[in-house]
Amino acid sequence: MSDATQSGPMLAADGRPLKRSLARALRAQKLRALMLIAPLLIFILVTFIAPIVDMLFRSVENQIVSETLPRTVVALEEWDPSDAPDDATFAALAYDFMAATERREHTRLGSRLNYETTGMSSLFRRTGRGVDDVGEDYADQFTDLNAAWGAPETWTALMGAPDWVAANAGDVDGAGTLFQLSVAARDAFPETADAYRSFARTIQSQDDDSPTAEEPWNTVYLALYRDLSAGHGAEYDGPMADLVAEAIPAVADFEGMSPREAFVEIDEDWLNLEVWGTIEAFSDPFTAGYFLTSVDLQLTPEGVEAQPEDQRIYLLLFWRTLFMSAAITISCILLGYPIAYLLSNLPTRTSNLLLILVLLPFWTSLLVRTSAWKVLLQQQGVINDVLVWIGLVADDGRLALINNQTGTIIAMTHILLPFMILPMFSVMKTIPPSYVRAAKSLGATNWTAFWRVYFPQSIPGIGAGCILVFILAIGYYITPELVGGRTGTFISNRIAFHISSSLNWGLAAALGSILLAVVLVLYWLYDRIVGIDNVKLG
């Protein structure tokens, strides 16, 4: 064999370098393994990871204000919070509000801001009913000056791009192509062009109408009056230039309500600085407001402040949830450990029979079991009747066991007890009895043999049971809702309320995110103190 052949790369059977062939085979093996786990990975991403990411996004998302009132948000950047905004800001609000009303988005925005300031929802509904009259007096005066101002073709010729006007001329039966604004109109009438484009595109998308067949909103006439009064349009020489030239000197004699006066006529609350402060404070597309509310704080124009004392409920609910979940977990340990010990040390036939009794509650609806506890725990219920009958409690001193924390702890301990027994039983079943016998043969008492030999080996089962019970407990809301009353509900009940009743999904997402973070922190502490590697299920 030659020196060149000896010094060359080692070849595989197919003549390729062996190193490259091995790398190719490993890549194919990894790809096959990835394809095998791909369905499970996709399932986890869709059903677990994606909902969590969506929840985290909803907890900070606040784009509804900036998307619904874009001009108003820009105008408020220079607003002095010590006084109500000027006419320019109210005009911007008029253009935004008119478009939002046509898209039926103003009520959604009002509901969102009502979470921060009470009364915003009703204010936005009333304004939605009256905003189409803003600028009506100017519309009448323009049409009185020249009837051509009331004709749709006048406005499309004045505002539309020449190519768009030519393509859509005479189209009155449909929306046509998307409205395009004339460059000359945009330069000559900045406020009017913006307001008219909003009008044209809104009716195209919402009503499938064409701007060539619809007279503009009254707010467009308001914008034209403001542009001409400010000196715009004097140099305009495009279509309808003679009509504009006629209107420029005439607007000086026009009389009508300013945008500010028009909104005040609709509702005097538009002079309330708190209303404008709320709009300005939540105008950013992302907000910490939901998280601040979740810890009994609030975002105001002056900054972060504490909630009023009668509205501070969430920190109390978080503390109550953790305390009661810990109490339920401890109760399950105290009740479940002796049962698991008995099951693991009885003969297999007897143990299996008793294990069926432990699993029996799973065959009954959670709602039925909780309702049964309502019957048992009420003051005229079975438990109080038995206590009175045996003389432990006087008839006029019956125990309050329901609609409080006691009722929640009792009912949830019963419901979650199997989740504690099963992990402990599965671990205890693997502990060899010979260890305890050996300890006794060396002189240990029954207690010493149990405490020094048996109990340490059962700790992994206790750890697994604690994790299951505690995490299940903090997420329960049906049982606390039915038996907890005012003092026995969890934070999960408030999350369910905001999702299904108040529809404040942002606050619900923030509360859920904080609860998730608390669980992860507790899980980390458990791992540091006990060690997650010591948790076993058998």
Structure description:
By secondary structure, this protein is mainly alpha-helical. The protein has 4 domains: 19-58, no CATH class; 68-132 and 259-281, no CATH class; 136-253, no CATH class; 314-534, MetI-like fold, CATH 1.10.3720.10. It is built from 27 helices and 2 strands. It starts with a helix and ends in a 9-residue tail after the last helix. The mean pLDDT is 88.
CATH topology of the largest domain: MetI-like fold
* Number of helical elements: 27
| Backbone shape | elongated
Q: Roughly what is the average pLDDT, rounded to an integer?
A: 88
Largest sheet: 2 strands, antiparallel
Strand content: under 5%
CATH evolutionary superfamily of the largest domain? MetI-like
Summarize the structure.
With 538 residues, this protein is an all-alpha fold. It has helices at 3-7, 18-58, 63-68, 70-75, 87-102, 106-114, 120-130, 136-145, 152-159, 162-168, 183-188, 190-207, 218-229, 241-250, 259-266, 273-281, 289-294, 314-345, 348-359, 366-377, 382-389, 405-428, 433-441, 446-475, 478-483, 491-500, 505-529, and strands at residues 297-300, 303-306.
Question: What features would you highlight for this structure?
Answer:
mainly alpha; 4 domains; 27 helices; elongated
Give the SSE map.
Layout: H1 3-7, H2 18-58, H3 63-68, H4 70-75, H5 87-102, H6 106-114, H7 120-130, H8 136-145, H9 152-159, H10 162-168, H11 183-188, H12 190-207, H13 218-229, H14 241-250, H15 259-266, H16 273-281, H17 289-294, E1 297-300, E2 303-306, H18 314-345, H19 348-359, H20 366-377, H21 382-389, H22 405-428, H23 433-441, H24 446-475, H25 478-483, H26 491-500, H27 505-529
Antiparallel strand pairs: 1-2
Helix pairs in contact: 2-27, 5-13, 6-7, 8-13, 12-13, 18-19, 18-22, 18-24, 20-22, 22-24, 23-24, 26-27
